[in-house]
Amino acid sequence: MPAVSSTVFLRAGAVRAVLYALLWGVLVGFEPGSWSLGVPAVLLATWLSLRLLPPVGLRLLPVVSFLGYFAWHSLLGAVDVARRALAPRLRLAPALVPFETALPPGLPRVLLLNSISLTPGTLSADIRDDTVWVHVLDGAGGHEAALAGLEARLARVFCA
Amino acid sequence: MNALALACMVLGALFFLAGTVGLLRFPDVHARLHALTKADNVGLGFLLLGLALEAGSAAVAAKLFVTWCLVLLASASVSHVIARAALRRGVEPWQR
Question: Does the beta carbon of B7 lie under 8 angstroms from any beta carbon of chain A?
Answer without folding.
Answer: no
